[in-house]
Amino acid sequence: MKILVLGAGGFIGCHLTHRLLQERHAVTAVDLDMDKVADSLNYPNLSFLQQDIRSAEWDLDKRVRDADLVIDLIAYANPGLYLIMPLEVFRLNFTENLKIAEACVRHGKRLIQFSTCEVYGRTASSLKNARLADPEDPIHATFSEDTSEFILGPVSKHRWIYSCAKQLLERVLHAYGLEMGFNYTIIRPFNFIGPKIDFLLHEREGIPRVFSFFMDALLHGTQMKLVDGGTNRRCYTYIEDAIECTNRIVENPGGVCDRQILNIGSPQNEISICRMAELMREIYAEKFRDPAVRLPEIVSVTGEEFYGKGYDDSNRRIPDITKVRTLLHWEPRTGIRELLETTMRYYVSEYRRSGAPRVPATA
């Protein structure tokens, strides 16, 4: 199959591109940055285009017309960016992605659109006037693709512009499917983790995501900062498990993924951000620590102090993965400790290979 992968140089994109090449697909990979996909450039079935899709010279129609399948991963997916450049986050995540979808409609091409679990927003138990018999019951935090309500914060909490942009794109794809028979599959990833998730240097991608921020702190001896105490919970999914599921969506046996929205996640891996910081520090001390360097302290900061004004967050997200289990016979296999240790090993190895100096941690 001839597959056009847009956003191939990102975290998910580089792993997915590698898998598609191994499956012997002819892949045209497009991204501004080729660093993360560098180890795949020698595949004869890869054509890599270093390209900004917003450029006037970019011939989207030609690339879509020449493909059998389009996979769109293009996004700003970093909470630090939602607060400092919300308009650009909206433009890229909705306006530019809509152009891709409409090109697929024009040329009758199937589209796999990566969305986000952030469309679900908050849980009912987080609402001030919620009167739940057991607010801790996982049922209140388990999100299903076709039935769960979306609960987002007020407009002044403009961190939600990313969620809204992705949600609006999903609704437009659904409408194209209803009115024109457009064939799409929407993927909602639940907190994928693995090698290459972020560059650890802050200046490369703004404030790194949670794992990357903690990893950076462990390597450089800076504080492991918990936003608002780290009480929010997430279900982390190892990237290799996620790519296996995505590859089955690409294969789409019997058309079971046509016009479907699919969660990909690991419900068994729920952990609070505070406990994740503690666990990462435990693993680092046990497996990777230089005895001459003290471990960093874990401290709490406010969301506004860490990210800036307009910050908000979802308190808990558990994926209902009944659909991918039923349609694709997929099951996540990697537990939380294993995925953290494996990913940490990658970053420790890269860090030490680069010859970066070790800085003693503060007390």
Biggest sheet architecture: 7 strands, parallel
Extract low-pLDDT stretches: 359-363
Tell me the structural class. alpha/beta
The number of helical runs is 12
How many distinct folded domains?
A: 1
Radius of gyration: 20 Å
**Spatial order of the strands in the main sheet?**
3-2-1-4-5-7-12
Beta-sheet strand percentage? 15-25%
The CATH architecture would be 3-Layer(aba) Sandwich
CATH topology, what is it called? Rossmann fold
Shape descriptor:
globular
Q: Measure the end-to-end span.
A: 55 Å
Helicity range of the residues?
A: 25-40%
Mean pLDDT: 93
List keywords for this structure.
363 residues, 15 strands, single chain, two-stranded parallel sheet, disordered C terminus, seven-stranded parallel beta sheet, Rossmann fold, globular, alpha/beta
